[in-house]
Design goal:
Largest sheet: 7 strands, mixed
Protein name: DUF4410 domain-containing protein
CATH class: Alpha Beta
Organism: Pedobacter miscanthi
CATH architecture: 3-Layer(aba) Sandwich
Helix content: 40-55%
CATH superfamily: ABC-type transport auxiliary lipoprotein component
CATH topology: Rossmann fold
Oligomer: single chain
Number of domains: 1
Structural class: alpha/beta
Keywords: Signal
């Protein structure tokens, strides 16, 4: 019995160590023009994210249509979660962030919602009437079935429930010319116990020291 407990303890430690390494992988790009540009920026819009959900082993009864619907739903969810996070800490930033409902309505009226990859960032900023736009992409590859992830979480006390891996890209583009001012890239896990709000919270906490608009 002692050997079993020791093995489980070692597995938990290994999982935590691996997660720490995995969660620590990040890259940040900062344009030489960033500091001057943000001095005159007042309003920033958060665009709907691009989301790609794939599977290492395609599940039974896979539906491409349902998968696309899930991607679109998650795209709006990440956008909303990021806006909520920034709104909660509004006093910490030098700019205000446009309400995402207004952003999406303006994009829809202009006929570009769902076609953001066909529109330049300066064109989007003009449509939205903002000084800069925050965009991003989240890609995840599911590596376990949900049932398998739940079983792991129960066995390892919540530490082994990782059901996939993901990469998050976050960008800030200048509104006047569309130039890339800042880019953040991070690898992260995708845990069944984590909501989109939790995922965005973890990501924003990681980049809070480097976020350009922090006062």
């Amino acid at each position: 019995m002692k050997k079993i407990y020791l093995t489980l303890a070692l597995l938990c430690c290994f999982t935590l160590f691996t997660k720490a390494q995995f969660e620590g992988s990040k890259q940040i790009f900062e344009s030489p023009k960033l500091r001057e540009a943000i001095k005159i920026q007042k309003t920033v819009a958060i665009l709907p994210f691009e989301v790609k959900i794939s599977y290492r082993k395609q599940p039974k009864n896979f539906s491409a249509e349902a998968n696309k619907s899930q991607e679109e739903s998650m795209a709006r969810s990440i956008q909303a979660s990021m806006y909520t996070f920034l709104l909660r800490k509004a006093s910490d930033y030098t700019v205000t962030f446009q309400d995402v409902d207004k952003t999406n309505i303006l994009l829809k009226k202009a006929g570009v919602l769902g076609k953001l990859d066909e529109t330049t960032k300066d064109e989007l900023a003009k449509i939205l009437g903002v000084d800069a736009v925050i965009g991003g992409r989240f890609e995840t590859e599911q590596t376990k079935t949900e049932a398998g992830a739940i079983a792991s979480a129960v066995l390892f006390g919540g530490f082994g429930g990782k059901s996939g891996t993901g990469t998050m890209f976050l960008t800030i583009n200048n509104g006047s010319d569309g130039e890339l001012l800042w880019r953040f890239f991070k690898t992260m896990d995708d845990n069944i116990m984590s909501s989109t709000d939790d995922m965005v919270e973890r990501m924003m906490r990681k980049i809070s020291r480097n976020f350009p608009y922090k006062s």
